[in-house]
Amino acid sequence: MNIFQISWKNIINKPLNATLSLVLFALGVGLISLLFLLNQQIEEKFDKNLAGIDLVVGAKGSPLQLILSSMYHIDAPTGNISLKAARPFLNPKHPLIGMAIPISLGDNYKGHRIVGTTPKILELYDNVQIEQGRIWENVFEVVIGKVVAEKLDLQLGSKFYGSHGLIDDENLVHDDIDAFKVVGILEGNGSVIDQLVLTANQTVWAVHDHEGSDSDTTHHEDHAHAIDLSIPLSEYPDKDITSLLIKFKSRNFQTLNMPRSINENTDMQAATPAIEINRVYSMIGDGEEALRYLAFIIIFVSGLSIFISLFSSLRERRYELALMRVMGASPSKLFLLIVLEGIILAFIGYLIGILLSHAGMSIFAAQMEETYRYSFSGWEFMKEEAYLLFGALAVGFIAAILPAIQASNTDISTTLSEG
Amino acid sequence: MLQTKDLAFSYDENVRFQFPDFSCQSAENCLLLGQSGSGKTTLLHLLGGMLTPKEGSIIVNDQDITKLSAAQLDRFRGQNIGIVFQKSHFVRALNVEENLMLAQQLANIRPDKTRIQTLLDRLNVGHKLKAKTDTLSIGEQQRVAIARALVNQPTVILADEPTSALDDINCDEVIALLEEEARKVGSTLLVVTHDNRLKEKFSNKILLHSQQTA
Fold first, then answer.
1. I want to staple A204 with a disulfide (CB 3.0 to 4.6 A). Which of A105, A116, B5, B195 is the partner?
2. Phi, psi (rounded to 5 degrees) for A169
3. Of A175, A181, A178, A236, which is closest to residue A206 (Cα–Cα)?
4. Cβ of A314 under 8 Å from any chain B Cβ?
């Protein structure tokens, strides 16, 4: 029968009071922790997928949309740009541009975007390696991300038909042309590339040039092999791409002015990922802040509920507290007894809250993966959660401190004479 | 053994209690008899170290408890003084056994389940070991309260009106029980009461007159 056990027995002796405090506490902690988790994982994904890209050039429209569609593969593209216009950026001798990666969007396979690009895109994403197979060497050859391979159970040599648009729709399957053939599978690296089907830009052209024509099968055999991937894209001025991902050689005054000059002097727009993503953060941030205040209010109320339930229980436990004093308990022991009750409640509430938030996060994760094609994890723990623990214990302590002081001031003689 | 000398107490400037000197030897049973308002409860609380006297000394087992610090007094009380209150109260969240273990633990005495079981058996409430205290009858509660007062083998057992709510038969029984248990653990038993039925049962009687002076 140590003091901790007595505190515990006192709590479970009043299950309804305890439950109310626990539910409130768990809600508050759970909400805060969930916000932490979401915030952290979203920022982590966004940051990872920034991939050192300095500038995205694409069709005019919303800059955020351009970034989201070309880098994060969430939104629809703003439109196409002609290679004629994009040609200067593709020039390997460009004095400012270190790397320019063309992106052609338009199709998906079971919700995973088929991205026409060049093999250099792998360098952007931490130099992600091909785990099995090789890079594409022909049109209709694809390299798929780890998650695509696992989720859709694709192996080297698997063949599939893409469907038109960026959302999975069976009615729009391109079954009138060649099937894509998996020639490579990337290692997983936690970025958006895990979720993509990569191929040559020319593949995307081949798919769409073909659209509407009703030629026979032999035709597209020829068609497919007619394209030589060794010819640089800049040799196709009449073709379109969706956007260019640009990495500067180094950042300087000229690169700083480049977006403005593109926006003012061309039919294209240039968007800076860092700026746009910060806008997203600040938009998310407002809602998050409101939710965070709500969570703090809930925690405050739960602290209040602990305080009230302890305080009201003191009235009926007055006599037994005096009795414990008679039996040799010092005032500080009674103080500890009551404080422990507050802290135990807070601790259990914290545990339930953390459990709730992580369970919630795993459910979210499954949903977000569908919508945003990112893998989130429900069971990643953060150091913020440790701070939250100290916060929770502090709330429990503060809620219990007044009742505890009152308990430790119990006057034995007066209380027992009333009895 | 229990002894007082020049004991006085006042709640405020107008009410002052002056108590007669008395002493109770080890293993002796004493009766402290007084009418309501004579300061019985006040004296009991003084003897139990729950109130601090204004003047005088209280010697329990060669120790003047008025000289102890608050912390020393808490410990001393837990180890040397067992109190049976008029109305039995327990820590409600705990069962009978746990309440008795609490008494041992708070007095810094190693919890001894065998002793608890034996004591409860002797008081005929052994089968209530795991019962919550609020499920006990009044009689059972009083027996458990007696067991709690005895569990640490105190030097002095103070009983406050232990029989006031009881009929004659139960009254005899409880007093017999208290005397017997006090003898077994070698304690001094002091019963504080206004119950005249008890007069005949004790040889050492202390009469408390209304000593209240304005």
1. A116
2. -145, 115
3. A178
4. no
- Interchain contact, B93 vs A1, CB within 8 Å: no
3-state secondary structure chain A: CCHHHHHHHHHHHCHHHHHHHHHHHHHHHHHHHHHHHHHHHHHHHHHHHHCCCCEEEEECCCHHHHHHHHHHCCCCCCCCEEHHHHHHHHCCCCCCEEEEEEEEEEEEECCEEEEEECCCHHHHCCCCCEEEECCCCCCCEEEECHHHHHHHCCCCCCEECCEECCCCCHHHECCCCCCEEEEEEECCCCCHHHHCEEEEHHHHHHHHHHCCCCCCHHHHHHHHHHCCCCCCHHHCCCCEECEEEEEECCCCHHHHHHHHHHHHHCCEEEECHHHHHHHHHHHHHHHHHHHHHHHHHHHHHHHHHHHHHHHHHHHHHHHHHHHHHHCCCCHHHHHHHHHHHHHHHHHHHHHHHHHHHHHHHHHHHHHHHHHHCCCCCCCCCCHHHHHHHHHHHHHHHHHHHHHHHHHHCCCHHHHHHHC
Q: Say if B92 is an interface residue toward chain A (CB within 8 Å).
A: yes
Q: With contact defined as beta carbons under 8 Å apart, do B82 and B149 qualify?
A: yes
Q: Are B45 and A416 in contact (CB < 8 Å)?
A: yes
Where residue B200 sits, what CATH number does that domain have? 3.40.50.300
Look at chain B and report how many structural domains it folds into: 1
Helix (H, G, I), strand (E, B) or coil at B143: helix
pLDDT in tens, chain B (214 residues): 888 888 888 888 777 888 888 888 877 889 988 877 778 888 888 998 888 888 899 998 888 998 999 889 988 988 899 999 888 889 999 999 999 999 999 888 888 999 999 989 888 889 999 999 989 988 889 889 989 998 988 989 999 888 877 778 878 888 888 888 888 888 899 998 888 888 888 888 888 875 555 4
Which residue is closest to A12 within chain B, CA to CA? Answer: B93
Q: Do A324 and B102 touch (CB under 8 A)?
A: yes
Judged by CB atoms closer than 8 Å, whether chains meet at B78 and A329 is answered as yes
| Within a domain: B187 | yes
Do the chains contact at A1 and B45, CB–CB below 8 Å? Answer: no
Taking the domains of chain A in order of start, what are their residue ranges? 3-46+286-418, 55-271
Q: With respect to residue B213, please indicate whether it lies within any of the assigned structural domains.
A: no
**Residue in A9, A325, A413 closest to B93 by CB:** A9
Q: Which long-range contacts (CB under 8 A, 24 or more apart) does B140-145 make?
A: B141/B88, B141/B90, B142/B84, B142/B88, B142/B174, B143/B177, B144/B88, B144/B90, B144/B96, B144/B99, B144/B100, B144/B120, B145/B84, B145/B85, B145/B88, B145/B89, B145/B90
**Contact criterion met (CB < 8 Å) for B89 and A6:** no
Give the angle A225-A228-A233 at the CA atoms, nearest 5°.
Answer: 135
* Contacts B50 to A, Cβ<8 Å: 325-326, 412-413, 416
Domain range for B187 is 2-208
| B214 within domain boundaries | no
Structural tokens at position A5: 């056990």
